[in-house]
Amino acid sequence: MNDFRELNVWKKSRCLLLLVYKITEIFPNNKFPGLTNQLRNSCVDILANITRAFSVKKYEEITRFLQSSIGSVKKLELQIRKAYDHHFINNLDYGYLNHKTKEISKLLKYSITNLKTES
Predict the structure, then answer these.
(1) Residue 60 is part of which domain span?
(2) CA distance 37 to 45
(3) What is the C-alpha to C-alpha distance for residues 113 and 119, in angstroms, rounded to an integer?
(4) Domains in the chain, number
(5) What CATH number has the domain bearing residue 30?
(6) Tens digit of each residue's pLDDT, the chain (119 residues)
């Protein structure tokens, strides 16, 4: 594969980013003003670390960046829960976002496991 944008995990993470941007457009600015930025930044961090992993050659560096992406997914899950707890997102969006974060996390873990077997 010649381009990180061809990676399934990158494509799914990008779709999640676009969804989070759309959902957070309606968040109230007066209550938890940083939450919108935190949600968006976590999504950007996921993508950035996947991109960085694709740009290095050493197994240890690749796995470090992919593990950082997993950490950003976990951070995003926490922020999604906070948004749900404060009624910024509904049950349907909450369930869908959680499903997507778990799917991305599994793909990242699979990528790390796959790299181990190839090394």
Answers:
(1) 4-118
(2) 12
(3) 10
(4) 1
(5) 1.20.1440.60
(6) 568 888 999 999 999 999 999 999 989 877 777 999 999 999 999 999 999 998 998 999 999 999 999 999 999 999 999 999 999 999 999 999 999 999 999 999 999 998 877 66
